[in-house]
Fold this sequence. Notes:
Elements: H1 13-21, H2 24-36, H3 47-64, E1 73-75, E2 80-84, H4 87-104, H5 107-111, H6 115-134, E3 137-142, E4 145-149, E5 154-158, E6 167-171, E7 177-181, E8 189-191, H7 198-210, H8 221-237, H9 245-248
Antiparallel strand pairs: 1-2, 2-3, 3-4, 4-5, 6-7, 7-8
Amino acid sequence: MTYPVGEPRPDRTVLVRVFAALTAVPVVTSAVLLWSFPDPPQALWPAYLFAWLGQGALILAAVVAAEPPAAFAAVPAVGEFRAPVRPLLAAMPALWGAVVCLYALHPGERLAGLAPAWLALEGAFALTAARLFAAATVVSLSARGVTVRGLFRTLVYAWDDLPDLPVTVVRGGARREMVMFTVAGRRPLRLAYAGVDSRFLAYAIAYYRWRPEFRAAIGTPDEHRRLYAELMTAYAVSAGARRFGDAVR
């Protein structure tokens, strides 16, 4: 989906959590099938073919997926710019769980003793979905600082407590880039699930670190438009710079 240049995107936190919660369906179904039905009905065996087709479709979707937009979700009510999880990514654990569930319907998988492996995979998908559900908004910017959400904890970093260069864009998997968020005395955090262009997110964090006069306006659509124009200008001036702090200091 495309967004008007410079405009904030809709906040789809609820949609992300719905997709993540749907992972429970294939997980529970797989457990029931594998432990309660040692010999699945023959009518269900063609599902094995659909599992292969589904697996190929998911791999193709992951490869050709467009880069996330250079836009935050602006939430004026709480004064935040949010970088939510992409809905497509949130749906992946449920879709992969469905593929594994279809594989489990084939009798050959039971004879090969692969039931524990399928259940372990479903458990991994369930944990991933729980992580996405708990941290539907990966990172948010507000007047008080940067909030990073995880499965078991939420970390809040005040702007003035951040180092001079708090962010770096690094190469991630599948030819993607991700933001490495560094705070003195702590282990670097990779913001891998944020559904915002990596460089835009990195530049925004560095920008507000060095421009405290604009922090109070965070969360408003007007400030998002101004920020976008400012960052695009700075990036054009420092084309190829790996750290936005090098351009704004």
